Amino acid sequence: MTKEAAGPNRDVKERLRRLAKGSQGHLVTTRRAAEILGLEPRAAHLALGRLLKAGWLERVKRGLFLILPLEADRKGAAIEDPWILARELFKPCYIGGWSAAEHWGLTEQIFRETFVVTSAYVRSSTQSHLGAAFHLVRARSPRVASVSTLWRGQERIAVSDRERTLADALAIPAWVGGVHHLIDMLRSYRSSPEWQPSRLLARVGEVSSGAAFRRLGYLAEAVLGERGALVEACLARRTTGNVRLEPGAKGKGKLSTRWRLWINVDLLQGGSLS
Q: Within a 10 A sphere around the Cβ of 51, how many other Cβ atoms?
């Protein structure tokens, strides 16, 4: 008799209920399951194995399981919130880049993959788990640990704030899909009630990137029409050497000696400059 026809017995239902209640977003590790069920690690491992075999759990990776609803099919399980899954799969990590930009309303672009910044080793920059797609980049532990958390339903998730999202993108424009998306984000931020240039400068300082200050200063002048304190602060933090405004574009374009930047994209029309 199949699981769907017979349903779980009372003991299994109670065990699943306890696991679901003590889980994080219906995700549970073997260690956490042992704590919830009051079992030794070996016994918890065996108990999870039986539930997995019976079709009440979906294995995400070794030692991490998704607790399925009682009415769920054995195949095709999906996670309700990819951010919670990312936290469990790639910790220590934070949600950043284009995903954070979408969250804060800095962009209207829709990206299929959830952008995750992690200090853990990852074998591939693109991964899919339980129907959710992830784009992964690595950063040093202090950079990841400096990002604060926010409530996502009943769970706390580390997410870069508006200014940190912009600072990350100023250092590496590809994190938001390139410099043209970055320009749109800066315009959105500048016109919002949340505009805080001193906070933005502080966040750029946190990512320790002289190139980010140069991009911010140049774009503040060329796109936002800024003058005064913000621009002067960026000028004071220029580093030596010349870098591309858009690292991913071919060609160097024209050199801005003021900002030590190769302006290798057309800010108005898009595309690279030879």
A: 20
Kindly compute the dihedral angle of the four CA atoms of residues 45, 46, 49, 55, in this order, to the nearest 10 degrees. -120
Distances (CA, A) of 110 to 106, 137, 150, 159, 212: 11, 19, 21, 17, 24
Nearest to 262 by CA among 218, 220, 209: 218
Domain locations in the chain as residue ranges: 3-67, 82-263
CA–CA gap between residue 150 and residue 86 (Å, rounded): 15
pLDDT in tens, 70-122: 665 545 555 778 999 999 999 999 999 999 999 999 999 989 999 999 999 99
Q: Is the peptide bond before 92 cis (omega within 30 degrees of 0)?
A: yes
Cα–Cα distance measured from residue 199 to residue 136, given in angstroms and rounded to the nearest whole number = 26
209: number of CA atoms within 13 Å, CB side?
Answer: 22
CATH number for 3-67 (one of 1.10.10.10, 3.40.640.10, 3.40.30.10, 1.20.272.10): it is 1.10.10.10
H helices present in 69-209, as ranges:
82-90, 97-103, 141-145, 162-171, 179-190, 197-206
Cα-based distances in Å from 88 to 26, 94, 139, 158: 11, 11, 17, 12
pTM: 0.82
Tell me 47's DSSP state: H
Q: In the 3-class helix/strand/coil scheme, how is 155-181 assigned residue by residue?
A: EEEEECCHHHHHHHHHHCHHHHCCHHH
